[in-house]
């Protein structure tokens, strides 16, 4: 199992090169994946992607999948310029494993670490908006009868987030939807939408745009974004 770096270790100050090899990890749900891409002045080109076994949310399955993907491309982990990771919302276990793995790889390679909101990755996975279009809603299961929700407007051929992540019940969200809106994500079938999953390839593209716009994360500050307490924590609050 990979050990997580600590602040007492030497902090890497590396940032992605103008051209470099990137790795992306998505472990927020049941269907995780890993992807690799090459960044040039022209953009980010997907080099390879690989799904993880269903519900494979442990370092024992994630690490070999990453190693296999990099070996397929002839890349060494030390050659990575950046590691992108979906930071949530999503599965508590999956996010912890994914973020810890991404931080360890980035620290060891002296690479940049770039966190991506899983709901943003879902929007990316739908492709660019086709005009005319309504609002895009991305959904993830929040358990206990709720969903994590983000909504996006079509702006100049891209999806622009309307507001931050919020939680909704089925009834609450149905009241928000308007004709022409598009709903995607694992719970979307309840709204006549598309039950697609976030992918590492989508995480890669969102991360590249974050870097292009000057955003990157400290390896040690990067953390899962759960957007809610765990069941055990909620029980403690109630007590």
From TrEMBL:
Q: Could you name the Gene Ontology cellular component terms for this entry?
A: cytosol
Q: Which InterPro entries match?
A: ATPase_NBD, Gcp-like_dom, T6A_TsaB
Q: Which Pfam families match?
A: TsaD (PF00814)
- Tell me which SUPFAM superfamilies the record gives: Actin-like ATPase domain (SSF53067)
GO biological-process terms attached to the record: tRNA threonylcarbamoyladenosine modification
Q: Which domain of life is it from?
A: Bacteria
- Positions of the Gcp-like domain: 59-154
What Gene3D superfamilies does the record tag this protein with? Answer: 3.30.420.40
* Protein's recorded name: tRNA threonylcarbamoyladenosine biosynthesis protein TsaB
Q: Which organism is it from?
A: Botrimarina mediterranea
In the UniProt record, the gene name given for this protein reads tsaB
């Amino acid at each position: 199992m990979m050990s997580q770096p600590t602040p007492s270790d030497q902090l890497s100050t590396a940032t992605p090169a103008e051209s470099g090899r990137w790795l992306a990890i998505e472990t927020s749900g049941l269907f995780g994946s890993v992807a690799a891409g090459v960044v040039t002045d022209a953009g980010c080109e997907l080099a390879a992607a690989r799904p993880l076994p269903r519900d494979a949310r442990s370092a024992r399955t994630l690490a070999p999948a990453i190693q296999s993907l990099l070996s397929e491309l002839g890349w060494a982990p030390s050659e990575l310029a950046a590691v992108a990771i979906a930071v949530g919302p999503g599965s508590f276990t999956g996010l912890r494993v994914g973020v810890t793995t991404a931080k360890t790889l980035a620290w060891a390679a002296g690479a940049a670490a770039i966190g991506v909101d899983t709901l943003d990755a879902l929007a990316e996975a739908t492709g660019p908006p086709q005009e005319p279009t309504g609002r895009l809603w991305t959904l993830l299961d929040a358990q206990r009868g709720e969903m994590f929700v983000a909504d996006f407007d079509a702006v100049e051929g891209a999806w622009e987030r309307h507001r931050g992540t919020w939680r909704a019940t089925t009834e609450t969200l149905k009241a928000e939807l308007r004709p022409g809106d598009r709903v995607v994500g694992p719970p979307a079938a309840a709204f006549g939408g598309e039950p697609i999953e976030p992918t590492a390839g989508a995480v890669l593209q969102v991360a590249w745009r974050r870097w292009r716009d000057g955003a990157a994360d400290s390896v040690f500050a990067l953390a899962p974004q759960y957007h809610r307490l765990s069941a055990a924590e909620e029980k403690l609050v109630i007590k």
